[in-house]
């Protein structure tokens, strides 16, 4: 879990995040089919869904490459998607890749823009296939660590019955 402090020294660190900000209704965007270094465009976002105050998780299917060298080169969300997520007022963005940003873009727009807007980032997710089309709550709860920018978590979802 990346907090705003991860990119912005004046931003909140992990210890300052509230539990209610980290247990959220979730939506999975099915982004499977992109190749490594593929850019996800706004066309992939659900147009009718209300994403405000939710966790939006991008399922690239990249967790299937975990442990291989292919995992290091991955698809990513475009700057247009980042801006749409900000405009939609999401609370958290998650990906099943090594990083939300294009590894070749050193400006790191996802981390810079999302964290500046207090939109948290979770990377290296797995098993998002099982949540496609489901209604669920996403849990991204870290230990409270002062002066800490990022923290490993045990991310999980509770599917609504």
Walk me through what this model shows.
By secondary structure, the chain is an alpha/beta fold. The chain is 11% helix and 20% strand. It contains two helices and eight strands; from the N terminus they run ββββαβαβββ. The strands form two sheets. A six-stranded mixed beta sheet has the order 6-5-3-1-7-8, with helices on one face. Strands 2-4 form a two-stranded parallel ribbon. α1 runs parallel beside α2. The protein is globular and about 40 Å long. The mean pLDDT is 95.
Radius of gyration: 14 Å
Number of helices: 2
Output the structural class: alpha/beta
Average residue-wise pLDDT: 95
SSE order, one letter for each helix or strand = EEEEHEHEEE
Q: Biggest sheet, open or closed, and with what strands and sense? A: 6 strands, mixed
Number of strands: 8
End-to-end separation: 27 Å
- Shape descriptor reads globular
């Amino acid at each position: 879990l990346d907090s705003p402090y991860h990119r912005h020294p004046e931003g909140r660190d992990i210890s300052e995040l509230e539990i209610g900000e980290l247990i959220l209704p979730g939506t999975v965007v099915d982004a499977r089919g992109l190749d490594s270094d593929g850019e996800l465009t706004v066309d992939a976002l659900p147009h009718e869904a209300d994403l405000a105050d939710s966790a939006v998780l991008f399922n690239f299917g990249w967790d299937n490459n975990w442990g291989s060298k292919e995992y290091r080169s991955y698809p990513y969300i475009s700057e247009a998607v980042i801006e749409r997520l900000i405009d939609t007022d999401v609370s958290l963005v998650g990906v099943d890749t090594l990083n939300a940003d294009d590894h070749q873009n050193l400006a790191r727009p996802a981390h810079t823009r999302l964290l500046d807007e207090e939109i948290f980032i979770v990377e290296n997710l797995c098993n998002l296939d099982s949540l496609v089309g489901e209604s669920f709550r996403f849990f991204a709860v870290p230990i409270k660590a002062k002066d800490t920018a990022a923290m490993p978590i045990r991310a999980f979802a509770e599917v609504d019955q």
